[in-house]
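Changelog-adjacent note: as of this version, every example in the card shows the full chain rather than a window. The one below runs 102 residues end to end.
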Amino acid sequence: MPKSPSSENTADRRIVQRLFAEQVVKRTIEAFSHVSDRSKQVLSMLYIEEFTDGMCYRAIGYEKTQYFDKVKPHALLEFADAYLLDDLHIYKERQDSKKTGV
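Full-length structure tokens:
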């Protein structure tokens, strides 16, 4: 019969989770400091001040199409490029690749 996890294992797991959470916060602040001012403004509005997309593009003076096609994707990509703990990029599959993996 399997044993239940010991309190030592639980304590170890909590320590690891806390250390990882600290790294996430540090790397997030670090990445935020490396993006352009416009991207900082957009990301701050969306994720700190909890603006909606509509509130954000109106506040920074962009048209809806320009905001969704260029401004917001650029801000997200800049952040993904600067965040060093995990790869935050989303990759598209190539259209010409075959399912055989070749």
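Structural remarks: Residues 7-33 form the longest helix (27 residues).
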